[in-house]
Design goal:
Blueprint lengths: L1 H12 L1 H7 L3 H6 L3 H7 L2 H25 L5 H27 L3 H7 L14 H11 L8 H15 L3 E2 L2 E2 L13 H16 L2 H8 L4 H9 L3 H15 L6 H14 L1
Antiparallel strand pairs: 1-2
Helix pairs in contact: 1-5, 5-6, 6-10, 6-11, 11-13
Length: 257
Amino acid sequence: MAGEIIACLRLIRLKPTLQAVITLAEFLTLKQHRDLAMVLSKETVWDYLFAIARAFYPLMRIVHLADCQAPGMDKLKYYVLQADRVLKEQLPKIDIAYAALASNYKAIMTDNTIYEIGDVVMPQKKLAKLEEIETKDEFSDGDDEDEQDDNDHSSIGKELEIDGLNLDGISLDDDKGVTFAGCILALRKQRQSKMLHDYSRVGYLLSPHPVIMKHARDNLALEDKEAVKRLITKLFIPTSVVGDAQITLQARLIHQF
């Protein structure tokens, strides 16, 4: 998944360049890739891409933490909590941005046809699709394009009925994963426990970073205290110590912690 998000970020960075290229006279005279050019000219498409990039950015921080060579266990729980907060705020916006896209744009964006490099030949499937699209939306700089943009955005305020999904009822409690937000949060919930293990919880409490220290003081949970107890018992109490001696040593180490 990280590769797709990186590709999305790079595409957003290239937005000014791409939009400049598709308006050049040299490009227009080629009469190639007109379907892609039409998509790249729409702000609703870029709004959708930006919503995806913004929602998944906190997860990229966790992936980067796993890839870097420097120790970072003290940051893991903090990053996980921040990712949960941002995902709950931003994921429903992806559903709304997707609803603002016209159906012909969605068809082009989900087409996995590979373009040939060199002598560009548009596949027959794209030719047929393009002829159908051009009857609905002509790629031009005139009033038709502005009118289409208005229609795209106005669809949010009308019924928001996209593929049988009523987006007026978007909920983060979507257990069946009908919405994009519900699907991602369900997958996130399955993997969260694997990241919030004893080492990440204790590292969170011992972090020297001022921001994480303050966050740990304000958000100390019972699970964190239990993680400290389990980790102290596992790492510092010899297996030969049992009974009352084990309990006494454990209490002293926890108090010292």
